[in-house]
Amino acid sequence: MSFDASDIRELGLWALPLAQRAGAVIMDIYKASPEVRYKADRSPVTDADVACEHIILKALSRLAGDIPVVAEEALSCGAAPKIADRFFLIDPVDGTKEFIRANGEFTVNIALVENRAPVFGLVYAPAFSDCYVTLGTDSAVRLKLVPDHNPEPRPAYEFQPISGERVHSRGFTAIVSRSNQTPATESFLRRIGDPRCLRMGSSLKFGVVARGDADVYPRFAPTSEWDIAAGHALVNAAGGCVLTETGESLDYGKIDRNFANPSFVVWRRRDEAEAMLQGA
């Protein structure tokens, strides 16, 4: 299966009921106080990660079995597919620490990468029924999406277009990780003028930037490509950008680094990024 610009919308419409089904399974486990285990790298994992990833991988194999899938839990067990110019990146539960803390700030992330850049992204927070999805490379929407084991196929979704526009009068605002604050983050924030800060877990932070409620999200703690690809696609489609600290583009498919990302900054607007980088 090949995707062009019009296929991105179809991929989004196909992925929404999949997200509902995966979200319903996650919420069942979330409410049951799941057992926490630890992987070789000491990162936590629960049955929700494993069950959700299984649902997504099975669905993707039916939709586009010829496109490789890099999925967090499978990769941690040694299942490393050979990737080409096009591949999916899956994080079944991004923000597992927040899942364990039961604050709701965790997401399902589904992304498609082409030529080292994310071209499609879905970020779904089932605890809040809050979903963000791209319907084109320059079309991002938000919608209420309730977890459902048996969702209605192709309902009349109530899409709210988002374009990074500030919807409220506010000062320059940053959003930062709830669980991974670092001295480098604090230093960056000082360099750009100590803006007001919001704190949040998981890739929901990308949604906050894409919808215009924050201007910048600096990340100077370790992440992997599956953590951010869907959010990156979302911010791009809403008119923003994701750059390294020095203003370079962030690429995907870094097999030699085991898909690890460098530090990066998410910007609501590219022109603001350029101005801040020049003045920092």
Describe the fold and architecture.
Strands 3-4-5-6-7-8-9 form a 7-stranded mixed sheet, with helices on both faces. The model has no long low-confidence stretch (mean pLDDT 92). By secondary structure, it is an alpha+beta fold. A hairpin with a 2-residue loop joins β5 and β6. The longest helix has 26 residues, at 5-30. It is built from 8 helices and 14 strands. α1 packs antiparallel against α2 (47-64) and α6 packs parallel to α7 (225-237).
Quick rundown:
The protein has helices spanning 5-30, 47-64, 72-76, 96-101, 183-191, 204-210, 225-237, 270-279, and strands spanning 37-38, 44-45, 69-71, 86-94, 107-114, 117-125, 130-136, 139-144, 160-162, 173-177, 196-200, 216-219, 241-244, 264-267. The chain is an alpha+beta fold and 280 residues long.
